[in-house]
Specification:
Blueprint: H1 2-13, H2 19-46, H3 50-56, H4 58-77, H5 88-116, H6 122-141, H7 161-172, H8 182-185, H9 188-203, H10 205-215, H11 222-232, H12 240-262, H13 271-286, H14 305-320, H15 322-336, H16 357-382, H17 391-405, H18 420-432, H19 445-459, E1 465-467, E2 470-472, H20 474-502, H21 508-519, H22 534-549, H23 551-557
Antiparallel strand pairs: 1-2
Length: 577
């Protein structure tokens, strides 16, 4: 499997290979599929219980069957294909490559499931999965086919390591910061790799493993269920399977719907390009990635309804969080519809489901930040305004940036022209970020809401935090304050390093803006990303990674859970101020 996968990568990653090498690699891939199919057939014949064998190896049987039937169909019916169709051997090779990739993905998913079911620290698994994803993305982006080549130059040129690493980290961590223009530097292959990276990074590589496990009807072990519950921040561990399938359904529906609405944004392009552009930006919007195929992002396109309407909708839905979206879905089904879904898909409960405190708190906090952010940006930019801009355009821009500042990374105006006080306000919004268990970053809306509620309770002289008829556990309050403290520590350290490496005191605010965008995995920039020095690029890479896995998650991943003690020391007060 490894040999055939490496042969597939080399075959498509290198532009300049001889015909002999091309067919040698192709034969290796085809022979590998022949071996897989024959070995599977022999094991089926010798197995004592064939029904049990089919149930256990259903995925392998499907992949081998797909390859066998497709290859036979190509060999028999090739004469009926159009005249410009590739030859029989090339088509068989293409099918073999597809099946090798599918089998490799399935093997990877099985490995992920085995790791998650061993009871390892979920935070450590999340950190390791993102490191693996970033590494694979960096290797793929360094192949010459991932970069646009000069047609007048016979030599092929690959992307430098730091450029590939920065782009892979930014895509895997759904940030959107770039050092080279995505639309003109990367080829269609490179752009597709980037899209796959922020799709997997947005949902989480472990979530994809659980998707396939649920799709093939496999049961989840208790330890595996606990791992995914903590990763998705769901408190209903018996509900993980339905939550995972709901995430898949909501993701596909939202991204395809968004892509359909976005097709009219580029009427000057051929329909194939329009489809690709719309799908790329729809996935980028839902995953809060901020990547755009246009060199100037969405600059001067804010007047299009697709930009101020569709894109914010995608960003908001992706930023609410998987558990919240699922809660709203089940709430709507059980309250307003007679629609029922049978096993083994969602199997939603028949009794009415209430909106959880978490869902209501996320919704209220998000609405407050959207409205408050829009008004704040509008009013701050109205002060000392130098350009003649209509009130509608200014309000439109304030609305879009209020949505994208907290997590997405798109921009319809040149952020470098923003007033200093507006940039500082944007830093606060970026630091807050999206909601827990979502595709966005930041310290999260609920964390900030709990911190504010905790301060309010102290001011009112209460010793506990209460909201919506519920008492919030003190452990969650302490965790929220810890996340904010660690976030400030990481942000200040990153900013200090960048300012020290760049030695440009005149643009200190831009450096703070850049590092906050990296930590909160937002992706907006005042235009200085590409001009930063290599040491600063390394700082931004590390900051994006820490911001994605979370300050608290990164801390837990590096430490073991200590034992719980049955004693406590006597209390003694200390002076606070």
């Amino acid at each position: 499997m490894i040999i055939s996968l490496v042969a597939t990568v080399i075959l498509h990653g290198l532009l300049k290979i001889t015909t002999i090498v091309h067919w040698e690699l192709g034969c290796t891939i085809v022979i590998a599929m022949v071996y897989f199919t024959l070995s599977l057939t022999i094991r089926y014949i010798w197995h004592l219980s064939r029904k049990e064998f089919i149930k256990k190896y259903l995925a392998y049987i499907f992949i081998s069957g797909l390859w066998l039937l497709s290859s036979i169909a190509i060999l028999i019916f090739h004469d009926l294909f159009p005249g410009d169709a590739p030859g029989r051997l090339e088509l068989v090779l293409g099918v073999s490559e597809l099946c090798v990739i599918l089998r490799s993905l399935y093997e990877t998913i099985l490995l992920i499931r085995r790791v998650s079911s061993r009871g390892w620290n979920p935070a450590l698994i999340v950190v390791a999965s993102f490191l693996i994803l970033i590494s694979i993305g960096t290797i793929l982006l360094m192949f010459p086919t991932a970069r646009v080549q000069d047609p007048t130059d016979n030599a092929t040129e690959a992307a430098p390591f730091l450029v590939a690493l920065f782009t892979s980290t930014s895509a895997s961590c759904v940030t959107g910061l770039i050092v080279v223009p995505t639309g003109t530097y990367w080829s269609r292959t490179g752009q597709t790799i980037i899209m796959i990276l922020f799709q997997i990074g947005g949902l989480g590589i472990l979530t994809f493993g659980a998707f396939f496990a649920a799709a093939f009807g496999r049961t989840m072990q208790i330890r595996e269920s606990v791992t995914f519950s903590e990763m998705l921040e769901s408190h209903q561990r018996g509900d993980v399977r339905r939550l995972l399938l709901a995430i898949l359904g909501i993701t596909i529906f939202t991204e395809l719907t968004g892509a359909i609405f976005l097709t009219g944004l580029w009427p000057e392009l051929p329909w194939q390009e329009r489809l690709y552009y719309s799908l790329f930006h729809s996935v980028s919007g839902y995953c809060n990635a901020g990547f755009s195929l246009m060199d100037d992002n969405l600059l001067n396109m804010g007047h299009h309804w697709q930009v101020w309407g569709v894109m914010p909708a995608l960003i908001i839905v992706g930023g609410l969080g998987f558990a919240v979206n699922y809660n709203y879905l089940i709430y709507g089904i059980t309250h307003f519809s007679n629609f029922s879904i049978r096993k083994p898909l969602f199997n939603h409960p028949t009794q009415k489901v209430r909106l959880t405190v978490s869902s209501r708190l996320v919704t209220l906090t998000t609405l407050f930040l959207l409205v408050g952010g829009t008004l704040g940006i509008y009013l701050l930019e109205s002060i000392h305004q130098q350009k003649e801009v209509s009130a509608w355009e200014q309000l439109n821009s304030a609305w879009f940036q209020s949505v994208t500042f907290r997590t997405a990374g798109f921009n319809t105006v040149d952020l470098g022209d923003y007033q200093p006080h507006t940039k500082l306000f944007a830093v606060l919004m970026m630091f807050i970020g999206a909601s827990p268990g979502s595709t966005g970053g930041g310290v999260k809306t609920v964390v900030c809401a709990l911190a504010v509620l905790s301060v309010w309770s102290l001011l009112k002289g209460r010793d506990r935090v209460e909201i919506m008829g519920r008492t919030i556990p003190n452990t969650l309050i302490n965790r929220s304050l810890t996340i904010i403290s660690l976030g400030i520590l990481v942000l200040m350290t990153s900013t200090l390093l960048v300012v020290m490496f760049e030695n440009r005191q005149d643009i200190f605010l831009d450096h703070l803006f850049e590092t906050t965008s990296a930590f909160a995995t937002v992706g907006v920039s005042t235009g200085i990303t590409a001009d930063l020095s290599p040491p600063s690029h390394w700082v931004i890479i590390l900051t994006m990674f820490i911001g994605r896995v979370g300050p608290l998650t990164a801390l837990i991943a590096l430490t073991n859970r200590g034992p719980s003690y049955r004693y406590s020391y006597p209390e003694e007060s200390v002076t606070l101020g």
